[in-house]
Amino acid sequence: MPAADAGSNKGFAYALGAFAIWGLILPIYMKLLDHVSPFEIVAHRILWAIPVAMLILWWQGVLGTVWRHFANVRTVALAALAATLISVNWGTYVYAIVSGQALDAALGYYINPLVNILLGAIVLGERPNRPQSFAIGLATVAVVILTVRAGGLPWISLTLAFSFGVYGLLRKMVPVGASEGFFLEVMILALPSAVVLVAMAGESRFLHDGVETALLIGTGPLTAIPLILFATGARLLHYSTIGVLQYMVPTLLFLGAIFLFGEPFDIWQLVAFGFIWAALALYTFALFQKGRAARRALRPQGL
User: Fold this and answer.
1) Is residue 302 part of a domain?
2) Cα torsion through 269, 275, 277, 279, rounded to 10
3) Which domain does 72 fall in, by range?
4) Helix (H, G, I), strand (E, B) or coil at 301
5) Which of 108, 119, 141, 210 lies 20 to 30 angstroms, CA to CA, from 268?
6) 104 and 154 Cβ atoms separated by less than 8 Å
7) Residue 67: half-sphere exposure toward Cβ, Cα within 13 Å
8) Do 154 and 146 contact (CB within 8 A), yes or no?
9) 216: closest CA among 63, 74, 21, 37?
10) Quick check: 123 and 165 in contact, CB under 8 A?
11) Spatial contact of 180 and 62, defined as CB atoms under 8 Å apart
12) Backbone φ, ψ for residue 272 (5° rounding)
C-alpha cells in the first residue's frame, strides 16, 4: 500500500472516530446524565478534561513548555474569549440533549458551516461565491420556517452554530497548537467550574452515587479524546474531505434524536431540514469546485 494511501486511511479512521463520538456516543452518554444540571455536567467536563489534556501534552513532549503561553497577555485574552464561547457551546449542547431537544442541536451543527461562510464575509472580508450565497439564503429560509412554527427563534440551533463559528475564528488568532490551545482553555475555565461545583454541592450526588460519579468523571476523557482524534485526522486528510465528513455529527445526532430518543418530528421540521440539506449540498458542491480550481492552478502547464 502506498504511503499516501496508508496516511489517508489512518486519517479517515481518526476523523470517523472523532465524529462518531461527537454524533452518537456523546449524546447517548449525556442522556444518561439527564437528571443532572447542565451547569454541573459542563463544570465536571472541564475539570476532568484537564488531567487528560496534560497527559496528551506530556505524550507530545510539550507539557514543560506550554506554561509559557500564560505569560503572553494577548494569547491569554484570546484564549479566555475562546474558552467562554466553547463553554457556552458545551452548555447549550448539554441542555439540548438532556431536555429532549437534540433535533435543535443537530440543526445547529448543520447550520454551522454556513455560519462560518457568513462570519468569514463579515469579519474577514471573504466574499462568498454564488453557490455559497444561495446556500446561506436557503438556511435563512429554514430558520424562518422554524421560527414561525415555534413562535420564536430556534435559539438552541443559532447559539450552537454561532458560538462554535466565532470560536473557530478566535482559535485561528490564538498562536498555539490544537492540544495546547485546548489545555489553555480548560485551565482558564477551571476556577469558574470549581466555583459552580461548590455552589451546587448541596444538590449534587457526586461522590455519593458511584454510577453518577463515574459518569461525570468520564466526561473529561470524552471531551478531550475526540478533539485529539480530529486534530490528528485533519492533518492526514484534505480540508474538503474533512468538510464533508463533518456532516456525520449532525446526521448521527438527527437520527439518534428520532430513533433513539423518540423526539417528535413534524412536517414543518422536515421542510426546514430539507432546505438545510439543500443548502449543504450547494456548500459541498462549492467546496469541491474550489478544490478542483486550486488543483488546476497548481498543475504544470502543457501536461
Assistant:
1) no
2) -150
3) 8-292
4) coil
5) 119
6) yes
7) 4
8) yes
9) 37
10) no
11) yes
12) -65, -45
DSSP 8-state symbol, 67 = G
Q: Quick one: DSSP state of residue 71?
A: G
Per-residue DSSP letter, 300: P
Number of domains in the chain: 1
> Measured in Å, how far apart are the chain's first and last C-alpha atoms?
27
Q: Is 74 inside a domain boundary?
A: yes
> Is residue 132 situated within a structural domain?
yes
**DSSP single-letter state for residue 288:** H
Cell of 285: 458542491
Which contacts of 3-9 are long-range, i.e. CB under 8 A and separated by 24 or more positions?
Answer: 7/236, 8/236, 8/237
Give per-residue pLDDT as tens, 189-226: 999 999 999 999 888 888 888 889 999 999 999 988 88
CA distance 298 to 131: 23
Beta carbons within 10 angstroms of residue 33's beta carbon: 20
In a domain, 297, yes or no: no
Here the cell at position 53 is 489534556
CA distance 223 to 242: 19
Q: What is the grid cell recorded at 106?
A: 443537530
129-166 residue pLDDT tens: 788 788 888 888 988 998 888 788 899 999 999 998 88
Helix, strand, or coil here: 303?
A: coil
Name the DSSP class of 209: S
Number of residues that make up the chain: 303
CA distances (Å), origin 17, targets 14, 247, 249: 5, 13, 11
Distance CA 216, CA 203 (A): 15
Going through the chain in order, the beta strands assigned E by DSSP cover: none
Contact (CB, 8 A) for 63 and 54: yes
pTM confidence score: 0.85
